[in-house]
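Components:
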Amino acid sequence: MSIGAADAKRVRDCSVGEFASKLISGLSLQIGPFAARIHANSARLSAPLYALYQDYPMLSDENVFHFHVRLDERRGFPRVDKRVVRFSVDGRAPHEDMPAAQALPVLEWGINLVIALRSHSFLMLHAAAVENGGRAILLPAAPGQGKTTLCAGLSLRGWRLLSDEFGLIRPGHTELIPVPRPMALKNESIDVIRRFEPEAVIGPEISNTRKGTVAHVKPSAQSIDEMRQAAPAHWIVFPRWRHEASTSLTEVSKAEGFMFLATNAFNYELLGEAAFHTVAGLVNQTRCFRFEYSDLDDAVEMLTDFAARDAE
Amino acid sequence: MTQLRCSQILLLAMPSKSESNQQLVRRLLGIVIFKPQDVPNLSTRELDMTLRLTRRVSLLGRLGSKLQATGLLESLPQVAVDQLQSGMALAEARSRLALWELDRIAWAMGTDLSTPLVAMKGCTYLLLGLPNAAGRIFADVDLMTTEENLESVEAVLNRKGWISTKLTPYDQNYYRKWTHELPPLVHEEREVEIDLHHNIMPRTARLHPSADKLMTRSRQLPESRYRVLADEDIVLHAMTHLMFDGDLADKLRDLVDICDLLEHFSGRNVGFWQRLVDRAEELDLTRPAYYSIRYACQLLELPVPGSVHEKAEEWAPMRAVVSLMDRLMPRALYPQHPDHPRKVTKICRLLLYIRSHWIRMPPWLLAYHLSYKFIATRLSRR
Amino acid sequence: MNEQAGKEISRWLSTGPDDLVWAAWGHDHIAYHRPSGKTHFLNASSRYLITELLCEPLALDEVVEAFAPAEIEGEQSAQTTRLCAMLERLEHLGFVRQL
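Structure:
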């Protein structure tokens, strides 16, 4: 059951046809610390999923999994001319059916939902995280603050992607556990990243979702290869994109850092005292900053330079 | 007599092909409930399925705490440990919330014990430290007071920051006028719902245990604002709640609770079974007691004294009804196989769902309530 | 609530030293309250009040005197009102109680 070793079979070792069959009969993948089992009968998914997940290690179907998810494409009801997709976990659908064209983001958001609902052996911060030279930046933010765009930018400029959504930490520890996933960019951010890095592998643009137009950036092969390597956080940076703002990095108090982390977590309150001690430990070993930016190139450059200087 | 015709249809409609899935579900959950020490010996596939099923019936926390207590948790693969720890963390968080809510209510109500507050169901198990409290997922806080005190208790809680949750006029009216209950309360700074009752069944229900008798036998907990029901009433409440007060789907956990309570109380007190039997008759709760004992024996192999079995048989309904319930009950209580759900199980559950409403309210009110809810749900989806 | 002629004067007391776990950076104090599972951002004065002053039951007057004696004539009543509000809020959160 151990994975992540360089010799594990990857999705790219299958043909697209084999992959499509596996999706229907059940695909077993390692995603960070999670053993995932995915069934999807929607033919439109095989090519984009293959492209986005090609570097992920595959697991034996004979396994204990963290979750079993299913995406079924079917006729709608009562509008039978409209096809829909239903996301379900262990036979239960957590939300209503969505238009079939949105199969990819529905599956991706669904996996995030399942992780958020049942992974309380971890403290889950609502944060992106990237690592370079053995040191990680944690980027906690409320939705809409540009965290994923900034995270994608950093990951395309030499930073290893740990996560774009979940800052995972085992209670009582301070290392960030990687859970690299395709990064969901929304609306204008898609073009921003295309201009920033024309070579970036980006999945199809899906419009009219509940978050507008969405496209996913493939995580680098390196971030998948190293997904079993946790990294200590050295800096906590609270990003905020603001129109035409100049790039600025301002240190804030540890107490402010603590409160912001605690209020931007999926399960801080649920984990109780263990979460309190974990966040206190995290804040004690890091410096905390507010970060405002409008230009992605400037932002990535400033953070990279700062990290290089501060590490000395 | 609609039930009879359905039973005939169902008996014909039950093929044997998928029995192996049902048998697997019951075997694995049997291990979880009775022999958790065997969980580390399960095959990989079985362990994976066991975790999925255990989560569905809200027993992950219970399983996790039993394995942890016997030092077996670490012998499982990390994937399993993650999920069991997650289940335990959830259970612990909910217990903490429930206990804190009880603390705040006690603070709000003050120390004058003339307004009695009886903690019910999960809160009882917590306050008494009963064995089934460990790893249990608590939902709401259930409290009982006398009918005369209901409104004044609500008023005190309103003054201290609790507000009514059901805000549509229909729902408010439904609660106050038809069930003579209060809509659930919730504090504006927290999320735990409080159900405040004056009896263990709503007024419109077909069973009418005497609230006075329940209150008279309740006892004050030392150094606490709260009372608890008498031991046999705690059990009868659990039985009535499971069998007569709600949807039975996936409610295996509630039957496990009843078994745990019966074993605990009868183990401490030789006269307990007799007291339970006598009290069931006194409160006219023999039907839920009959079903609970029957299915606790049939499905969970609860040891029950022969004399109790004999007595319980006197409480049975018509043979045809028992036969039908024997078919329906396991299909409702046990979860479906997560990958191979069966339509017939959905039908069984629908029948029991209708039954649960049927016995909570008179037919005309049932029809009105179900149609309102059906239309309201459709409208809100648009 | 408090001092009325002929009535019993209520006293304030911390609910329990073990109920709170603290982290502090400079003047900022963060407390985790075990019974409620809630985390609170407090200042040094509140911490002093909860962990030092109210280890023994004190009446409101005594709290005002020990915690923030008025330096200017006439400020006493404003101080009392402020402290009273603070104590009520702490009581609401479960950190202190009235005897």
